Amino acid sequence: MTVDASQIQLWGEIDYLVQSSRTIHCFVGQLVVDDWKSIQPNEEVDKVFIVPLRQLLFTDPVYYRLEATPIETTDFPFDRIRNGKYYQFSQEYRSIPFYENLEETIWGMTAQFTKCLTDILNDESIAKKNPSDIEKSKGR
Question: Taxonomically, which superkingdom (predicted)?
Fold first, then answer.
C-alpha cells in the first residue's frame, strides 16, 4: 500500500499460519494517516475499508464448511499405489470464517486473524476487571 513506514505504529505479531508452501505472519498496528481514504492499495489488496473495533469485538464469525477433493493430475504416480486411480483418498474439510452483516465481508485468513485479535482483546479486557466482577460474569 502507499503508506510510508513512518506512518505505521507497529504493536506486535498476534499469530501466524503455516501452510504447505508458505508461512503467513500477522502483525497488528495503527496507521497514522490524516485520511484513510487516501491510501492506494497495491495489487495484493482488493479494497481498503474500515470496521469499528467495537463492532468486531461483539461480532463472532460464521463458519462455513468447505470440502476439498483431490484433483487428478497427469504426473501423479497412480501406478505405484493400491487401486491406482480408484484409490479412496480421504476427504478434507476446511472451516472458513466469515464476518457477516458488515458493510464489507471479511472472510478466510483475514477473518481468522481478526478473530485471533478480538479474542486477545476480549481476554485482556476480562483480565483487567475486578476479580469479583469476573466471578459475577461466570454466574457464581
Answer: Bacteria
